[in-house]
Amino acid sequence: MRAIKRHKVTALVFALLSVWLIIVPGSFAAGEPSTPINTVKVGYLFDFTGPMAAIGLGPEQKLAFDLFMQDHKASGGFVIGGKKYMIEPVIYDDKGIAEGVREATNRLVVRDGVKFIAWEMTDSGILAMHPIIQQNKVLTIVAGGTKEILSPNFSYCFRAYPPEAQIEPLMYDWLAKNMPQVKRIGILTYDEAAGRAIAPVAREKAAKHGFEIVDVVLTPRAQRDFTAELSRIRNKNPDMIDTSCGPSALLIKQARDMGYNVPILNYAGFHPLAVTKTIGWNVLEGVISHAVNPEDPSLNSNFANYIRRVQRAGGQGGRWAFSVYNASWVLVQAMEKANSLDPTKIRDVLETSEFNLIEGIKGRFGGKEIYGIGHQLLHPVHMSIIEKGKVKNIAVLNLQ
Questions:
Q1: CB neighbourhood size of 343 (10 A)
Q2: What value, to the nearest 5°, has the Cα angle with vertex 373 and ends 147 and 125?
Q3: Are 169 and 205 in contact (CB under 8 A)?
Q4: Sheet arrangement for strand 240-242
Q5: What are phi and psi of 120, to 5 degrees?
Q6: Nearest to 324 by CA among 128, 65, 18
Q7: Residues 198, 189: contact at Cβ < 8 Å?
Q8: What CA–CA distance (Å, rounded) separates 96 from 140?
Q9: Distances (CA, A) of 86 to 59, 66, 308
Q10: pLDDT tens per residue across span 310-326
Q11: What is the pLDDT of residues 147-201, one digit of tens each?
């Protein structure tokens, strides 16, 4: 009899507890918020296939985005009008070509109803998406290396990636001060808009510092044999090769195989860690790049930890990884500061506010004197050199 009563009491308690859990959802459910989370669709275009796929930037950028989403979810999202929001990513392969970007952008805007896009890398792709995003007022944060990416005609487009034409003069300033033995420079880079834009900038800075640009050689992106071009430059006896927009690591290997061991400037090309297993550290000796050694005690600790996270996950942690993270993080901060999901209001906040960056500092958008509109994210560009098989941080260039 007592056992039957005890069973009835237990059943009654369980029933009451079940009703209470229904009335108060999430009270005991691990990991579930007590208030519903709203979502904001944000588009992302990565080059997983096509002519850019061989460089491997698409997976590296997607990895950086995944780490941002881990942190975004861990933070619980952001608040607008007293409501919690979380990014809902909509990701497409842009196929590494302008038409692929145009198609994906139309899909994002027309089919998915996206009002925000937080990544596209290629210059031709960004130019192809401009009319779509401007007409539909889609706030977009991109990469790209050419001046034409930013314009008063494209008022909804911002850039989180440091362009080559702004890095080049800062790098030459650094060379004049820190590598005075460099007096003659040969430029060997891609025959693309960003590559073609480098030569006049380099010549101007070289003249200021007493350098001589002994030759400028442009090659197709698909080229794999650089013997003739390297021989042409070598015959002019430069102290350094500037690859600027970054031909492949194959170029550097071929230069070393020819016995050509001058320093090579590669601030926008491949990340050294991406090729060490295939071409070896000895080939990379003297290469100046955007790699960052996270064990440098002068780095912000959170920034260093982020680089370690990227590398543990199989990435390299160069400026693409920093720019992808910053694009999404800055967008989220701007939404919260604007207290709105109106792209125009968020655009106005991006133009006038400072934002936390993954590098551990605050950054803002500027560059109006260069582009006619202040939509370039001004943030530090870290540079390093390979010495004795290790990445040695040597400079932090601050975009102005």
A1: 19
A2: 40
A3: yes
A4: 212-219, 184-190, 240-242, 264-266, 287-289, 380-387, 390-398
A5: -155, 135
A6: 65
A7: yes
A8: 18
A9: 23, 14, 25
A10: 999 999 988 889 999 99
A11: 899 999 999 999 999 888 889 899 999 999 999 999 999 999 888 877 888 888 8
What is residue 265's predicted lDDT score, i.e. its pLDDT? 93
Q: At what angle do helices 123-135 and 98-106 cross, to 10 degrees?
A: 30
Q: Which residue has the tokens 């401007």?
A: 134
CB of 190 closer than 8 Å to CB of 246 = yes
Distance in angstroms (rounded) separating the CA atoms of residues 351 and 139:
12
Average pLDDT of the segment spanning 134-152: 95
| Euclidean distance between CA atoms 143 and 108, whole angstroms | 18
- 138 and 155 Cβ atoms separated by less than 8 Å: no
Q: What is the mean pLDDT of residues 39-49?
A: 95
| Amino acid making up residue 271 | H
Bridge-based pairing of strands 376-378 and 240-242 is unpaired
Q: What is the spatial distance between Cα 145 and Cα 52, in angstroms, rounded to a whole number?
A: 15
**Strand 83-93 with 78-80, pairing:** antiparallel
Question: Mutual orientation of helices 301-312 and 319-338 as an angle, nearest 10°?
Answer: 120
Instruction: Give the global pTM.
Output: 0.87
